[in-house]
Structures are given as C-alpha cells and as structure tokens.
Amino acid sequence: MTYSIAQAAEHSGLSIDTLRYYERIGLVDPPARDSGGRRNYSDDDLGWLVFLTRLRTTGMPIRMMREYAQLRHRGAATAGRRKQILFEHRASVRDRIAELQSCLEVLEFKITHYEQIEHTMIEGITA
C-alpha cells in the first residue's frame, strides 16, 4: 500500500514540512513518486517514520538520528554500532524518566500539602 505525504504525516505525527526536512537531511530516503511527481510512502517508510518519531520524542539529537540512518543504509555490518547508539540512548531515556519521577514525587507532595491546608480551612469554617 502507498500513502501520500499528508497520510504519512498524519500516520507518523510529523508535519509535512518535517517529512520534507527529514528527507532533505538524509533521515528519510526519498520516497517513490507517482506519475504526477507526488511522494508515495510505503508501509516500510511509515514504520521508519514512526521509529524516528520515537527517537525524537525521547530526546535523541538529530545528529545521532542521522548517524543511525546512515548506518542503517550500510546494512547488517553496522548492527553493532546501531545497537550501541540505542543502548546509550536508552540509558539517557532511563535517566530522564528517573528525573521526571523525582519531579512527580515533589508535585504529589505539594498537592497533598495543599489538600491538607484546604481541609484544615474547611474544618475551621464548619467548627
């Protein structure tokens, strides 16, 4: 099945401009074109776009994404380096999750604190 650039954008959550940018910087291979010159994305293209979106959402820098994409083109011989990139990025994501968890705990504490203040105020009014 093939998808227009608008459908690929919708499926991946990326904008049309971002798809064109990713193509221009080499993150995405130029998709096939129809007889009118319009881009036609394949299911494999969409799978790659979803993966790129996950990398970006988790904070991988574009330069690392580009390295990964370039290695991908060189085939199985680069599997070790690609795995290492993902391994390092996974550690970064885990660190970020731990940081966010710590922030969440502070927010939970503050919310509980303010709920206690409100409860005390209501008790004081009804007493």
Automatic annotation (TrEMBL):
One of its GO terms (molecular function) is DNA binding. InterPro entries: DNA-bd_dom_put_sf, MerR-type_HTH_dom, MerR_fam. Keywords: DNA-binding. It comes from Saccharothrix ecbatanensis. Coiled coil: none annotated. This is DNA-binding transcriptional MerR regulator. It comes from the Bacteria. Pfam families: MerR_1 (PF13411). Residues 2-71 form the HTH merR-type domain.
